[in-house]
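As the work plan foresaw, our protein records have gained a C-alpha cell line. A representative record is set out beneath this paragraph:
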Amino acid sequence: MEFTLFKNGANWVKADFHLHSPYVHSFTLPNGINLDNELNRLVDLYLNKLIEKEIRIAAITDYQQVRKEFLKKLQTKAREKEIYILPGIELSINYGKGLHILIIFEYDQDINGINDYIKSLDQKPHEALINDDRSHRDINLQRDLKIILEQIKSNFNCLIIYPHPNNKNGINSIQPKEYAELLKFADAIEFIDENDKNKLISTGSLEKSFFDNFAIIENTDPKSIDEIGSKQRNGKIRTTYLKLSSVSINAIKLALHDPALRVSAHEKRDKKNDRIISVKINGTSFLKNVSLDFNQDLNTLIGGRGVGKSAILEAIRYCLNLPVYTDEEYREHFVKSVVGSGGTIEIEIERFFGETSIKDKIKRVIGQLTVVEGKNLSPEELFADKIPLILGQKELYALSLKEDFQLLLIDNLIGEAIKKEDLELKKLITTLEENSRELSLEKKKIQKKDEYEQELKTINEHIKIFQNLGVADKMAKHTALIQDEKILINAIDEIRKKINELKQSLENTIQEIEKHNKLLQYGNSVEKNILLESSNEFLGIKEYFKNLKKDFENQTENYEQKINALQKKWQEQKKKYEIEINTIKQELSEKRLEPDKYESLIKRKTQLEPILNEYSKITQKIKDLETKRNELKNKIKEQRHNLFNIRKAKLDELNKKLNNRLKIDIEYLNSKEKFKEQFSELVRGSGISRDAINSITEKEAIDGIEISKYISLGEQKLKEKFGLTDTMVQRLLEWFKDDERLFKLETLLPDDKILIKLKVEDTDKELSTLSAGQKATALLILLFAQENRILVIDQPEEDLDNRFIYEDVVKILREIKNNRQIILVTHNANIPVLGDAEQVFVLEASNNECSIIDTGSIDKTFIVQSIKSIMEGGEEAFIRRIEKYGVKI
C-alpha cells in the first residue's frame, strides 16, 4: 500500500522507526490506565503525542510480536490525521550479548503472518515469546543470523535497522568484522560516530563509500508516552527527517540509501530560496485547466512529444514577462495559440529575505500586460537582482554564443560585490553625462563673447569721439539717468524674483510639515505615543510657519507698494529733465553732432557691460567643469579597472568550485562587439572607414576615454597608436571637433571578455572551438552554478552527449538543487532518476487538451512506471540507480 504525502512532491517529513506500544514490559503506563479495558484511551493518548511531535511516519516495533489490536486501532485513527503507522518487530535474539534488530513491514502486511514467521525462527516455535507481564524472552535462532536476515528480506518487503548499536543489546557488542558483515543486510543504523564508521571500514569488509548509501538515523525508543519524540542525544532531539512524496517501504528504502539528499538527523534542512509555488493556466485552447504545484528543489516535466511540456514553460515565461532570447515572435504566438484568446495564466511565487518571506500572485491575460496583485511593479522589478532564468528550446546553444550573456552570468555568480561596484561606475558615468550637458550649455552661452567684446570696444571708441566733441559733457546728466534707470529696474526685478521664491519655499515647507504630521499620527510600535507627542510639536511648527508666511506676505505687499511708488516717482522726476535734454539734443543736432546716436550707444553699453561681466563668471565655470570632468574620467577608469579586479578574484574562487569541469578567465575591456557597434554609430557620416574603425576599437584595453586622449594629442600620436592613414586621422579630428560627439565618445566602455574553457578528454578547450553540444554543455554548467535564482530550462539535454548527462549533469543537479529551485522539461530519464527529482509531472494529451495525470517523486510507484514507459532510457536509468544505491525501484 502507498500513500501520497504532498501535492508538490518530496518534502521533509518527520519519521520515527523505533517506537514501542504500552504492551511491552519496559513501557511505563500512564497513571490510572488499565490495559484490559482502556485501549481506545491509550490509542488516543498515543496519537495525540504523535500529532504534538509532528511525527507523520512511525513504526511500532514491539519485542518479538506485533500487538495486533493496538496497532490496527492506532493505524485507523492515525490515518485520518494523515499519520502512517507501520507494523514492526524489535527482534531480540540470543546472539552475542542478546542482539536487537528492528524489522519494519509494509503498512498492510498481514500481522498474523508476521507473528507466525517470527515464532518460526525460534528453536522452540511453539513456546510463547511474550509473557503475561508483558516481558519477552530471546529467540534462539534455528539457523545462522546472516541466513535468517537473507530469508527475511526474501520473504518480506521490509526495512532492517540496527537500534542503539552501542548499548548492551546493540550490534557494537559483537566483533567489528562480523558487525561490518551484518551491516550489509540492513538499510540503516541508529546513531554511530565517525570513529565507529572508520573502525568498520578498517575491517576491509565494507567499501570506503559504504556510508554514502547507508543511513545513520535517530529514533526515540520511548519508554513512556511522554518520551515519544522527546528523548535527546547530546542536547538534540533524537529524530529523523526523510524527504518523501509518498509512504511505502520502497519509498523509505529509497531515502535511506540516498542519505545525502533524503535523510537528515535531528532537524530538517530548511531552505530559504525564491521559488515558484504554483502555476494555474485557465485557457480556452490546448492548456484549458492545467494546475502545477512545484517543489522548492528539482522539478521535471515528462511525457511524449506534443503533450504540452514546452507550452507550459513558455506560458510561465509569458506570464512573468521575462526575456526571450531567440524567436521571440514565434514563442509569443505559440503561447497565445496554446492558451487561447481570453485565457489566463496565474503564478504564485515566494521570495525570501533572510528568515522571512513574501508571497505574491502574478497574473496575465493573453494579449494584456502582466499584473502583480496588490503591487505597482513588474515581475522583473519584483524579483530585483534575482530574476528567474528561463530558457526555451534551442536557446541554450544560442546563448552560448553571446558574450554579454556570459558576463551577466558571471556577475550574477559574484553577486552583491560586483553589483555595488557596477552601480558606482554607472553613477560616475551619469555624473559625466550631466557634466557634458552642463559644459555644452555653458559653452553655447559664451559663444557670442568675442562678438560682444568687439561691439563694446567699437562703442567705447565712438563714445570717445563724442566726448572729444563735448557731446558727452552736455549729455552727462542724461547718460547718468539712463545708467541709474537700468540699475533700478534690474534691482527691482531681482528682488521681486527672490520674494516670489521665498513665498513658494514657505508654502512648500508648510505642506511638508502637514504630510509628516499625518504620518506621525499612525504609529504601530509600542512607543507610538512618542510619535503623537512629536505630531503635536509639528502642529506648533506649522502654525509658526503659517504666521511667518502671512507676516512676510503683508510686509512684502507694503514694500511692493512703496517700490511701485518709487518707480512712479522716478518716472515723474525723469519727465522734469526731458525738456532740458530735448533742448540740448536740438542744439547738438543743429551742430550736426548726432545726440540720438550718442544716447543709443550709451544704452547699448549699459546692456553689454553686465552681460560681459556675467561671461567672466561663465568662463570660470567652464574651467571648473573641465577640471571636474578630468577628475571624473580618471575615477571612471579607476572604477572600471576595479570591476575587472573583482571579477578576476571571484573567478579564481569559482574555478576551484567548478572542480575543473570548466575553466573561466577574463580579459580587461576586451569584449569588442558591442563597443565596436557603438563607436561605428557615433562616427556614422564621418567618412571613417570600416578598417579604421576596426583598427581603433580592436586595440588592447582601449575605451572611449583613451581614444579621446589620443585625439587631444594630435595627428602623430593617432597615427602611431592606431596605424591610421593621414586621411582617416584628419576625418577623425574633424569629426570630434564637435564637443557633443567627443563627450559621447568618453562614455563608451567595452565590457570585460569572459573566456570559457570546457574540459574535453582531459584537455581545456576554448568555447569558440567547441561543437554545438559542447558549447551548450559549458553554458549549462555555468547556469547550474547560479545560486538562489529560479532556473527553468526546456530540454537541457538537447545536443548533449548522454555520457555527459549521466556523469556530469546529474551530479551537478544533485549538488546544487538544495540551493535553488530548478524546473526542467526533459526526455532523458537520467535527469529525474539519478538527479533524484523531488517532483515529476507526468503529462499526456487527449482530445487536443493537455492533462497532468500524476505527480510525485521516484519514491512513488506510478511515477517509476511512467518514467520507464515514457522516457528514453527509462529502464537503463533505474538500472544505473540500482547499481549506485543498491535499491531496486
Remarks:
- The first helix runs from residue 39 to 52.
- DSSP finds 30 helices and 27 strands in the chain.
- The chain has four domains: 3-265, 275-388+789-885, 418-437+629-753, 447-626.
